[in-house]
Amino acid sequence: MDRNVVRRQVDRILSTGAGDTRSVIIQVAPDEDLATFGRTAAQSIGRRALLLTARDCLPTPHDAPRSRTGTPRSGEPPDDLVAVVGGFAAQTATDSDAAQSGADLRGRAVSRISRALEQVGTDLGREEVAGPLWAADAAKVELSVATLRRLPDEAEEIHGIYPNRRIRVPPVVPAANLPPQVLENRASSWGLERTGALAAWGAYGARGAGVTVAVLDTGVDPSHPDLAEKVSAFAEFDSGGRLTGADAHDPVGHGTHVCGTIAGGNASGQWIGVAPDARLAVAKVLDDGGGTDAAILAGLTWAIEQGVDVINLSVSGLVLEPEAPPTYTVALLRALRHGIPVVVSIGNEGSQTTGLPGNDLYALSVGGIDHLDQAAGFSGGRTQIIEESDFIDEQFLPMPYSKPELCAPGVAIVSSVPGGAWAPLNGTSTASPHVAGVAALLLSATRLQTAVPPQQRGFLIMDLVVGSVDELGESGQDHRYGFGRVNALRTIGFAHERGF
Fold first, then answer.
1. What residues act catalytically?
2. What is the CATH number of domain 3-31+98-164?
3. Cβ proximity of 337 and 455 under 8 Å
4. Looking at per-residue confidence, does 88 or 497 come out higher?
């Protein structure tokens, strides 16, 4: 990166805050394998603005013999399967990282971060500082003002430097005066019916079995009757991104509500989870006052190391600039290289606003709607603009792109809260877990986990989920609905039709 860019970043950090030190996240340049991977995907994503229908996002069917229902007759994946996954993030590059193990990738990243730390003169342990955020090619450090001033000229390994910001829990409010159409849903939360989850259970026997969804949030109450035996892993991270070793808990309730919408049961007599047979890996990265970038990036890194299938981030840090900060871009791409789509709420600050990391180019961001398919007034969305990037060829810059990609039920969503209770909440953070749950249903009903290599699986999941929505709003992608409302039944149907 141009050293003048790093100087501007340092000047901005020094102009805020007080005292002789600053809490910052330093980032090294992405390796060429990851940069190539990101560039290939970015070119396809950039063309999405020209699409007038969600169906143009779907992957191209391959020529495997299929039955009348569209499912392959043979249990073996066809030879040309890799070559045909298409859609808006089509044909990502197959390069050397594909053959690297997670441990190898981690080792390479930690080595590069450690060299950068040596350049800034930190005497902290290499593994302690460099390890927690390796998926982002980053480390969180406390640096003196004097060191920060020297950094652009003396630390050539450092590619970017960003404040370790405080990000609040997305503002959600209890839903009051529930309309009759919501109350009349006896068998399930209205969101399960509207997203086609109930129909997918019956038509395909898909309930999320064999799929693990990571939830990065305020924690989870694993003793809740709707979540019993469903939490397979738990981790808590402090503001510096360090693992605390605490047992599973949720002092806020937000994370437990999100977990319930993804995989909750029917202990109350009403089904609340889109994928009730899925497992949950929960990272507590927020408390009642929010969390930090370092904690969230550490949670993303942990989720990748856990080998999860989908990541849900019902987190939203409001960004006022038209360009989304690149802090999360590498971590999201790293997740996609491992076959993991990252589903993120777009934010609750209303039209023409977005929140990080949902406004990142590589996030699958979700807006919220009510039971009448009206966009919630609080739901965010706008056009983002990338002016500088390691992952986009200069000929395509500046690059505008729209958010969100799609929408889901986010008003009066009944789900679990700590203490064995249930409550209806409003917010795009209740919409995002519906989409994460649909992704889990898709994986449990198809051969995507076994027939598609990781470097393409995450994009293919997004292609299928976005391409099969019930289209709402303007033709193509708009700022209120994205391409439209998620539809689990149609997503699985299109996947089977295309031989998965």
1. 217, 254, 429
2. 3.30.70
3. yes
4. 497
